[in-house]
Amino acid sequence: MQIPKGLAPMVPSTEDALAAERSKAAFKVSDMHQFIVDSDMRTKVAKVEALMGEEPETFSLRKVYFMSRQEKMEHALAIGKRLIELLKEGKLSGDDISIADMVLDINGPFGLHRTMFIPTLQNQATVEQQELFLRPALNYEILGCYAQTEIGHGSNVQGLETTCTYVPETDEFEVHSPSVRACKWWIGSLGVTATHAMVMAQLIVGGKRHGPCPVVVPIRSTVDHQPLEGVTVGDLGPKFGFNTMDNGFLLLNRVRVPRINLLQRYITVSPGGKVSRPANVDPKVAYGTMVYVRTQIVRNMSQVLAKATTVAVRYAAVRRQFKSESSALESPVLDYSMVQYRLIPLVAQNYAMFATSQAFLAHYQRSMVEMDKGNFAPLKELHATACGLKRWTSDVGVAGIDTCRHVCGGHGFSQFSGLNEFYGNAYPNIIWEGDNYVLSQQTVRYLISQVRALRAGKPVAENQTTRYLQRHMPQGQLHAAAFDVSQLLVQKEAQLDLLAFRSASMASALVDALDAGRSWNHSLVDVQRLCDAHSDFIVASYFRQHLDTLDAQSPLVPHLEKLATLLFLYTLEQHSADLFRLPRPFTPEMVAQVERALARAIEEVREQAVPLVDAFGISDFRLNSALGRSDGKVYDSYLEWAMEDPLNNDEGLRREWFEKYYKPVLHGKSRL
Amino acid sequence: MQIPKGLAPMVPSTEDALAAERSKAAFKVSDMHQFIVDSDMRTKVAKVEALMGEEPETFSLRKVYFMSRQEKMEHALAIGKRLIELLKEGKLSGDDISIADMVLDINGPFGLHRTMFIPTLQNQATVEQQELFLRPALNYEILGCYAQTEIGHGSNVQGLETTCTYVPETDEFEVHSPSVRACKWWIGSLGVTATHAMVMAQLIVGGKRHGPCPVVVPIRSTVDHQPLEGVTVGDLGPKFGFNTMDNGFLLLNRVRVPRINLLQRYITVSPGGKVSRPANVDPKVAYGTMVYVRTQIVRNMSQVLAKATTVAVRYAAVRRQFKSESSALESPVLDYSMVQYRLIPLVAQNYAMFATSQAFLAHYQRSMVEMDKGNFAPLKELHATACGLKRWTSDVGVAGIDTCRHVCGGHGFSQFSGLNEFYGNAYPNIIWEGDNYVLSQQTVRYLISQVRALRAGKPVAENQTTRYLQRHMPQGQLHAAAFDVSQLLVQKEAQLDLLAFRSASMASALVDALDAGRSWNHSLVDVQRLCDAHSDFIVASYFRQHLDTLDAQSPLVPHLEKLATLLFLYTLEQHSADLFRLPRPFTPEMVAQVERALARAIEEVREQAVPLVDAFGISDFRLNSALGRSDGKVYDSYLEWAMEDPLNNDEGLRREWFEKYYKPVLHGKSRL
To answer: Where does the Acyl-CoA oxidase/dehydrogenase middle domain lie (chains A, B) (predicted)?
Structure first.
């Protein structure tokens, strides 16, 4: 099916509209790209996109919107197999492959083998076990997954019900799922792929429980892929997104494995059943891995939100609706203040996320260096910050993609917008690695402990969090400009000070409430809010830190400063209720000033909106969106993609449907 | 695939947990159901569910989660065909069919024929045209759709580019799509089904434009369903939801139709090209239809949100996570305050939506009676209210389903939760029939006009809106209790008064800003907020009105009162920033009192949460959710559904994948 010939061109064209936006650019887009996206990401994305460009058949994304679940899985398998070949050929590194997954937005069935099975072996297997399991895993002679979550147990690892019982008679472990509630669930790469599962199970030796430990359980034959004796395993069905991944379930019916299959670096069971703990778990390993995973989530959320804001800003710049008072043409919807209000702060948040991602990773790396030296002082704050940022970036990212979709109007609802695919695949980030509501408690427990220590005059580790708590407790020591809105607009220190004061005040009030006897469970609503207030400060602070790495004379500075101030004002405006409740409260007139300043900032930044999203540097290949095309040729492309729908091209199917459904209706018994 | 035998039962069981919740019911669920769901809905749902129960093969929903787009379409076609047969046999009425669509949550390809094509003919065709088009349409001898939206034109009907030009030489119209931007788009039932399109096109006679008018254009043969000459038509591809509907595109290349195909009740073109307007469009028709459609959206949003809250509340009652301080068992997540805070106010909003749906429909019907008598005074307020309620209920409904999904944790992400299907199908309600952001302007324009009239001392029609504006302007005449939180909790009048005062104050401030020269475009953020404040009042007011229809002695009253007060407190808490900015502002201590009262109310209502959602009366068939089952047998059912996944049962496919993808990886070239 093709667009008929002879149609008149659209006047004004969408291409011209986008070109006009770009002609307004007041900074060099490539310079901005270099500053806001870290060099590692830039290099690797360029490398994998080039490689994929050489094999367009395998790495095509064009047909993905028409695929059924099964076709998506098969597409991901073909890609996954090819990536492993490229890895074996030395053309791609393991890191490159994770970038490839991100570029394609396809998380395929070999993913958890790399991201969970292998790292667990690296961290928790003895040398002997590494030879036995890690070596074949690295060679892809076995395919693994990490089976922790159970159908009835998500966040509560201690509550897992799967057991791993030592059998002294045969020197084996018996791994068992006692009830349906112990069924392993959500396990990525388990559904159709894995030959081996790293099962987290309650270790029982001589009747005594030792808590959850990882044990390697072979589940499918490496010869013919058939499930082994006692293993009930399968794919857990279609999901809201992530349908290229075979999340699976696993029930084990008294499956025996040799004693050596229990990873023994941190706990050892000797022949006969003596349990010892040869090494304490290195806190760097336990927390470091968690924090590292969260640095990756922050990075990924920046990237996926960038795809969404790129689509929405570009499309809003070329989509026209209703005539303005001043023009005979319909106005681009990006000129409407309500569209700007929804989209422009999101672009600022996206910039903040990119900057935060870099500053946070740097913080993580510095902390790891300290820990290598045996200094574990940075650990708690690092972990608290990581939890807060994982929550902040995934909340903003997932809600932001939804905002972008709605801004695109009806067309956002089409799969060809790309936004629904982004949304579905990004969505789990608010749940996994600690549900965002659970995670906020981690951050806030740390804040509370520091507030209590400060109140009691105890020493606290010095870091970005304790510094601001110290400054504002027991009472606010505010920068003079923090309560003068006109000053706030120009004084960066005062901006951070106000955000810190907000968070510190809320932390202080929460401690008061707890001290007065309110239970933790009754405090959870306040806990969420405090976590967000803290993260608002951290994000603003990291954003500033990253800006400070730029030469003060750089022509990028004024544009980035505008974004930082815009984000600050938006944060205040979104949480104006907090401002009214500060120990030194804002007045209604001050809040109105904030709103007016925000409206002006939004209008200013709108002028650079298209260059600002161009600077994210997302290729058309990655966007895979008819609406977000970099050349602005939106409607032709959208129509062409629709015409490719198999429903429009399968004559046989259409004849069959006509005979079966339409003809009996049209030519059937009369009603009247 | 089957669950292996010999597993131990889960202790405590999820069934027992749900039964325990039900045993706490302090009211009769069937009485509550009768009160909160209108009798028309109850009767029709029962009727269609009974009928569907007789033909489980056709009306099955069980496999829907595994279906590809094409399979979904075919499933909907089979259902649609059967419903038409039942209609022709007199077993179902047209109304019943719309209920059937709602019950199944399947909007099939025959839908727009009934909901748009036929009504347009009924309203705008002459008697002669009714014989020509309406009669065969009612007989399903032709299948229609309503082709208004274009790829480049959504809300702006005046901007449509498709033309309908009179050709005096042949006494025909030439219907034409000049450019791709004029391509008809999103048209339901057009993609593969319709034989006729009601095309909205710019009428041009003798070179003069007369605005958009409806013209009937045959597009596919009724004999073999092939597209007719000059017609490019097809399905516009997969969407975020609504994939049982064939939304389509249509390009017309100078297609000629006889003069009689232009619907001529409100505009007539005579042979030779004289244009006259025989009858003014009856405002009852123009606005009445729009308002009626919005009463249906309010009703549908109540129903779909009820499905989601039923799933989430039941599942939260049986899902356990972490041990509480007081028990050896893990706690049901519904006992966590953060889960309650997200879920219980939503249940209250859901009750308010059901009540509002009934009260609003009654208001609509009273207004129609007035208009039949020639009194058009209620029209403007009715329209403003309808716009506000469409926005309020669809915003709350769609966001609410998302909240329910997130509350279910990871399992909400599975299609078997049902929630994703509800979400995708409900989502378009925030966009169609006026995008919610555009729609708020309609409501607020009315509010502004009434504020201006009142300020100028001009007479205004008396209605619920003008009454509250009058009461609070020029200054607030507040109920004495409105600023005493403890009094507010018990005095219903004061609650409504405070909500009215908030809305009136915001309306007044907006008029001041506009009068001071701020442009409409710069006021849109305030416009949204005012629209919501107004709707908060209207919803609370309708909720009260519906409660007042109940015998004061009814044992249901205290439970409903609690819900109404909870919703009121939640509205205040969510908008506490507004309270601080009232002409007579709340203090931080008052807001804290509101928060404490809300927390108590939530805890109280939580005790009745399961009976309260049971009272929505949604059958397991409709829920189609493994998590929301009324018997609480969640995990077995969830696992059984997963086991039915074709991926788990297609041995041939699995062997093929093993040979093609896994074997080459497992047994391929070594890496190390």
So the answer is: 145-253
The DSSP symbol for A273 reads S
Least CB–CB distance from B639: residue in A80, A249, A525: A249
Q: With contact defined as beta carbons under 8 Å apart, do A295 and A357 qualify? A: yes
Quote the minimal CA–CA distance from A526 to chain B in Å: 10
Q: pLDDT, tens digit, for every residue of B517-540? A: 999 999 999 999 999 999 999 999
Q: Phi and psi of A75, rounded to 5°?
A: -55, -45
- Together in a domain, B240 and B358: no
Tell me which chain B residues have a C-beta less than 8 angstroms from the C-beta of A595.
Answer: 525
Q: Please count the residue pairs, one from chain A and one from chain B, whose beta carbons lie less than 8 angstroms apart.
A: 366
Q: Give me the interface pTM, i.e. the ipTM.
A: 0.96
- Regarding whether A373 and A441 lie in a shared domain, the answer is yes
CATH of the domain at A333: 1.20.140.10
Q: Which one of B7, B237, B585 has the shortest CB-CB distance to A642? A: B237
In a domain, A139, yes or no: no
Q: DSSP string of A448-505?
A: HHHHHHHHTT-----SHHHHHHHHHSSS----GGGG-HHHHTT-HHHHHHHHHHHHHH
* Residue A351 resides in a domain: yes
Instruction: Please indicate, yes or no, whether residues A258 and A306 belong to a single structural domain of this protein.
Output: no
Q: Do A151 and B639 touch (CB under 8 A)?
A: yes
Contacts of A576 (CB under 8 A, 6+ apart): A586, A591, A594, B577, B580
Q: Render the burial of A212-234: b for 16+ CB within 10 Å, e for the rest.
A: bbbbbbbbbebeebeeeebbbbb
Provide the domain limits for residue A190.
Answer: 144-281
Same domain for A299 and A438, yes or no, is: yes
The residue in chain B having the minimum alpha-carbon distance to the alpha carbon of residue A522 is B337
Over range B362-388, report the average pLDDT.
93
Q: Is B15 a catalytic site residue?
A: no
Q: Which of A48, A83, A106 is the last residue of a domain?
A: A106
For residue B37, the distance in angstroms to the closest alpha carbon of chain A comes to 30
Q: How far apart are CA A29 and CA A609, in angstroms?
A: 11
CA-to-CA distance for B502 and B481, rounded, in angstroms? Answer: 15
Mark whether A86 and A191 lie in a shared domain: no
Residue where a domain terminates, one of B251, B266, B281: B281
Q: Are A194 and A144 in contact (CB under 8 A)?
A: yes
Confirm or deny that A188 is annotated as ligand binding. yes
Same domain assignment for residues B426 and B521? yes
Q: How many helices (H) and strands (E) does chain B have?
A: 26, 13
Of B174, B433, B573, B603, which residue is the catalytic one? Answer: B433
Token pair, residue B254, equals 């100078």
**A330 contacts B521? CB cut-off 8 A:** no
CATH of the domain at A237: 2.40.110.10
**Could you tell me if B313 and B336 lie in one domain?**
yes
- Amino acid present at A263: L
> What are the average pLDDT values for consecutive 10-residue runs of chain A, which has 672 residues?
91 93 98 96 96 94 93 97 95 93 94 95 95 97 97 85 97 98 97 98 97 97 97 98 97 98 94 90 76 93 98 96 71 94 98 97 93 89 96 98 97 97 97 94 98 94 95 76 90 95 96 96 97 98 96 97 98 98 95 97 98 98 97 97 96 97 91 66
Tell which residue, B133, B108, B96, has the closest CA to residue B118: B133
Angle at CA of residue A649, ends A648 and A651, nearest 5°: 105
Question: A536 lies in a domain?
Answer: no
* Whether residue A342 sits in one domain with residue A433: yes
Annotated binding residues of B for FAD, as ranges?
A: 149, 188
Per-residue pLDDT tens over the stretch A286-313: 778 889 999 999 999 999 999 999 999 9
Per the structure, the count of domains in chain B is: 4
Task: Identify the CA nearest to A171 among candidates A269, A278, A277.
Answer: A269
Within-domain flag for A117: no
Token pair of A351, please? 């910039």
